[in-house]
Specification:
This protein is 48% helix and 9% strand. It has helices at residues 8-26, 41-49, 53-56, 90-101, 129-139, 162-172, 202-212, 218-224, 229-249, 260-278, 284-297, 305-308, 313-327, 347-367, 378-390, and strands at residues 29-34, 60-61, 67-70, 76-80, 115-121, 145-150, 184-186, 331-332, 337-338. The strands form 2 sheets. Strands 2-3-4-1-5-6-7 form a 7-stranded mixed β-sheet, sandwiched between helices.
């Protein structure tokens, strides 16, 4: 591949393949959520994972009353009960639990159920024997069962109300096999400014879930959750550092003198793994074309991302060639971005700068879930700005977007 004729379509395909592989390597953490209709299960899942089961509609029917949402290649799978009653349907539900949890520990890791969230509305006044029996049944399968009270109001002093504390105590007094032992998580998933109730308890529940699931699936849970951006940053930084070391091992040769096919392939692979680590919803065509646009044009200041993702591969290649000629610098496919190659910048520095800049793009996409962030005109400029801040001496840095 020559710098004057970058393979935009090839990079797009490669990125899609690399994302699929990265997501497969992360695995899938499966959480079963039990609770009556109206206790706030969907609201809880949406707050922690950005998964609105009500909006996504019915999942895959596992039994008459249990559905499965998501799953591989997504980092999260959710077993959901649309709502159970503690009367005539209890025996049926117990039988279905036997079906779903059968041989759970013998299944491949990503197909097992790794934790149960048993959800109850804190506004209810009692926890009945039938619910306790259900908790016992779930725990007997060997899966950690975590008791969650939702819609927990707080006093002006920031403490749970007396009614909530009494309900939690009544549950603990039953000596149920909960994880952690004798623990009830008190959560309010959505702030209510009118009543003065803040969002609270979600991070405590998430941290306990990390402790409950197999360590091999921690990276999947990091990707799936939406609460702790710092965990995502740390995971992405490890990826950037790994690829930076790989680039450094190749020597300090300035990138334009290196094998550009190898360099572009390595950066494509790094971008894909960063995207998977952040848990970016993979809209296959848009995200792949955006990543390829960054790798080929580097956020060329004259073209917006919304225009680039609509171009053909040949049009983007011409754009990159034009920018190379106009800038008159030694460039690499990560972009027709100016790199301080003349000053001796090596591939390791370029990899690190490009990786961290792509992290900022991923965070932008996550922070704007309701907009079409993948074709937002700010995205390429964002990459260009952060790449320029990190690559080369000050005189060689890209201008801020």
């Amino acid at each position: 591949m020559a710098t004057g004729n970058p393979d935009f379509d090839g990079i797009t395909r490669r990125f899609g393949e690399e994302v699929a592989q990265a997501r497969y390597e992360l695995g899938t953490v499966n959480i079963a959520v039990f609770g009556n209709t109206g206790v706030g299960k969907s609201t809880l899942l949406n707050a922690v994972f950005g998964k609105d089961l009500a909006a996504t509609g019915a999942g895959d029917a596992v039994t008459a009353h249990i559905q499965y949402h998501g799953g591989a290649p997504e980092p999260l799978g959710v077993y959901d009960t649309p709502g159970f009653e503690t009367g005539a349907g209890q025996d049926t539900l117990l039988s279905e639990i036997d079906q779903v949890f059968a041989d759970n520990d013998r299944k491949p890791l990503s197909e097992r159920i790794h934790a149960v969230w048993f959800v109850e509305n804190s506004q209810t006044s009692r926890f009945v024997d039938a619910q306790a029996a259900l908790v016992q049944k779930l725990a007997s399968s060997g899966v950690p069962v975590m008791m969650v009270l939702t819609r927990v109001r707080r006093t002006p002093a920031g403490k749970p109300t007396t009614a909530t504390k009494n309900l939690a105590r009544s549950i603990v007094d039953r000596s149920l096999p909960l994880t952690p032992p004798s623990t009830v998580f008190l959560v309010n998933a959505v702030a209510d400014p009118e009543l003065g109730d803040p969002e609270h308890g979600l991070n405590t529940l998430l941290e306990a879930t990390f402790q409950a699931i197999p360590r091999e699936l921690h990276e999947a849970l990091v990707a799936a959750q939406r609460l702790d951006m710092e965990r995502k940053r740390r995971a992405a930084s490890r990826i950037v550092n790994r690829f930076t070391l790989t680039s450094a091992a190749a020597g300090a040769t300035p990138v334009p003198l290196a094998d550009l096919v190898l360099v572009t392939g390595s950066l494509t692979r790094m971008f894909a793994r960063i995207s998977a680590a952040y848990g970016i919803p993979f809209k296959k065509k848009q995200l792949a074309r955006l990543a390829a646009a960054v790798l080929v044009t580097g956020g060329a200041a004259t073209v917006t991302s919304s225009a680039i993702v609509k171009m053909s591969g040949k049009q983007v290649a011409k754009l990159a060639t034009r920018e190379t000629s106009k800038l008159g610098a030694r460039l690499i496919p990560v972009a027709n971005v100016v790199v301080a190659a003349a000053a001796g910048t090596g591939s390791a520095m370029v990899a690190k700068a490009a990786g961290h800049a792509w992290c900022r793009v991923c965070e932008y996409i996550l922070k704007h879930p309701d907009s079409d962030a993948l074709v937002n005109d700010d995205v390429l400029s964002l990459f260009q700005h952060h790449f320029g801040r990190r690559s080369g001496p000050p005189d060689d840095r890209l201008p801020a977007a």
